[in-house]
User: Fold this.
Amino acid sequence: MKLYGFPPSPNTRKVQAVAAHLGIPLELVLVSLPKGESRTAEFLVLNPGGRTPARRWRRHVVGIECDHAVPGEQEEKCAMA
Assistant:
């Protein structure tokens, strides 16, 4: 699964942690927030909301909203949404 994110971002780290815990391999695609890469036309095609992290599974790209994730079950739901 490809994960589009910015490694220092807490939300990207949450998804990486849950994926590691569940044994799901991730390929990280760097999206630099300071450089505005989440607002480029190329990224907005993947995630029109322009938010990271986003994930690609097969042909589908899904934005991941983790602003209110809490440890435990909620993080798993967040990562796999």
Strands lie at 2-5, 27-30, 54-57, 60-63. Residues 66-81 have pLDDT under 50 and may be disordered. Residues 10-22 form the longest helix (13 residues).
